[in-house]
Write a structure and sequence with these properties.
Elements lengths: L3 E10 L2 E11 L4 E5 L6 H9 L6 E6 L2 E4 L12 E4 L11 H11 L4 H14 L15 H14 L4 E5 L7 H18 L2 E6 L2 H7 L2 E6 L2 E6 L1 H6 L4 H6 L4 E5 L7 E3 H9 L7 E5 L4 E4 L3 E10 L4 E7 L4 E6 L8 E6 L1 E4 L4
Parallel strand pairs: 3-8, 3-9, 6-7, 7-8
Antiparallel strand pairs: 1-2, 1-4, 4-5, 9-10, 11-13, 12-19, 13-19, 14-18, 15-16, 15-18, 16-17
Bound molecules: adenosine-5'-diphosphate (ADP) and magnesium ion.
Amino acid sequence: MAELRLEQLSKVFADQTVISDLTLAIPQGAFTAILGPSGCGKTTTLRIMAGLEKLSGGRLWLGDRLLADAQTHVPPEYRNMGMVFQSYALWPHMTVAENVGYPLKLRKVNGAARQKQVADALEVVELGAYATRSPQELSGGQRQRVALARCLVSEPQVVLLDEPLANLDRHLRATMEQTFRTFHRRTGATFVYVTHDQQEAMSLASHIAVMHQGKLMQWGEPETLYQRPQNDWVARFIGKGSILSLATPSHIQQLDQRLLHQSAGHTQTGARSLVLIRPEHVQISPDGLKGTVESCIYQGERYLLELRLDDGQTLSAFHSAALALQQTVGVRLLHGWRLDAA
Ligand code: ADP
Ligand code: MG
């Protein structure tokens, strides 16, 4: 198994630690994402994988092959990895076909063999008809597909993508996401997809590494990150929700309606826990806790409510109808996830 393994990776620029103690095992052939806010170290991590940046500590492995540690540094061209950037990085003076064929030219693949591989790659990204155009004559989405095709011809074992959709508009992104899925299936390569956009990461990747300030916060499947975040930072970063301070029993993590309502009714001081409540687990009902509607925002498919509970804490909820501001409603909490034991 040629998994891509990061062991206690660290990177220091001048005196700033940008990545610390990053350990991650990326399964062979998986579509994985590195997700985190701007400046958290995603690009640096990707560049270390590609060999464009040296690491300051730790080890990087591809299967049983050591790619980098404090002494070792396998140059990028010997790593069998392809990289796709936000900025496409196409050669403006070459045609689409020449851009795509360039990695083959470097490897001395010539003539009909090169032509065929270029044509096949352009077919995968549905740009067969654009072979003789120059990149300037293409839209942003088409340019990114040329960059993908260029990556494809070198048959990389690992494909590293750095926010490849960040320059494209929303509608085009959905189409391009499908292109990435197809591309991943066709190549069978290991994908590491860097993004700050959680929806993009969730809809594409089977596993996501959430990063914050150079550290790994959580590594897991999208559903796990959403339903069972490891700490309150991840809980706030992924999805919508409220974090309430409640007097819950300390040994239970998944809290049902009965436990939530018991502990929400407790007013005495004492041990309290942080509990994540997703808006879809809050129900407006005739009974339950009392809440005042502080805002009601139309979102197309539903309304997003902000409610103020009697104890002063706020709670987000989804609801199918608009509610008047300042009105008092009953609230049922269906499900909660206790954060501090996670
Ligand atoms: P992200 O891709 O998550 O936005 P980066 O990996 O680009 O984050 O950057 C992480 C941190 O490292 C930032 O604070 C950035 O300023 C710093 N950084 C990145 N590259 C360099 C560099 N070549 N020299 C000094 N600092 C850098
Ligand atoms: Mg970046």
